[in-house]
Amino acid sequence: MLEAAAIGVPHELKGEAIVVFVVLRPGHEGTDALALDIAKVIAEKLGRPLRPETVRFVTDLPKTRNAKILRRVIRGAYLGHSDLGDLSSLENPAAVETIRNSSP
Questions:
Q1: Is there a contact between 98 and 59 (Cβ–Cβ < 8 Å)?
Q2: Does the pTM exceed 0.70?
Q3: How many domains is the chain partitioned into structurally?
Q4: CA-based nearest residue to 93, from 24, 74, 19, 2
Q5: Which long-range contacts (CB under 8 A, 24 or more apart) does 93-96 make?
Q6: Which of 35, 45, 68, 81 is deepest in the core (most CB within 10 A)?
Q7: Cα 13 from Cα 5, distance rounded (Å)
Q8: Cβ proximity of 35 and 55 under 8 Å
C-alpha cells in the first residue's frame, strides 16, 4: 500500500460507516482478498468498531499542492454531491472522478 484515506459515510443501522480508499504501489493489484486483509488488519490494530465497511482501490487521492489529502472532497465525491466546495488548491482533479466512479 502506498497511501490511504478513510472517510465516514452514512449507514442505516450504525449511523456512520468507514470507507477506506487505498492507492497501491505500482505492480500490485487490488483484489477482494486484499481488501479483506486490509479490513482485518485495521480491525486487529484499531478495534472491531473501526473495521471499514468497504475498501476501495483507486489510482490516486485528491491532494493539495502540499500533498495534503482532501478528505472532504473524497467524501463529497463518494456520496455523489455536486458541490464539492473550493477545488482551486487541488493538484490532481482526475482523482475526484476516479472516486466518483467508485461510489456505490
A1: yes
A2: yes
A3: 1
A4: 74
A5: 93/62, 94/60, 95/58, 95/59, 95/60, 95/61, 95/62, 95/63, 96/62
A6: 35
A7: 23
A8: yes
What range defines the domain where residue 30 resides? 3-102
% helix, strand, coil for the chain, step of 5: 35, 25, 40
Where residue 86 sits, what CATH number does that domain have? 3.30.300.30
| pLDDT at 103 exceeding the cut of 80 | no
Helical H runs in 1-104?
32-46, 71-78, 94-102
Count of Cβ atoms closer than 10 Å to residue 95 Cβ: 23
Q: What is the pLDDT of residue 6?
A: 97
How far does the chain reach from its first CA to its final CA, in angstroms?
23
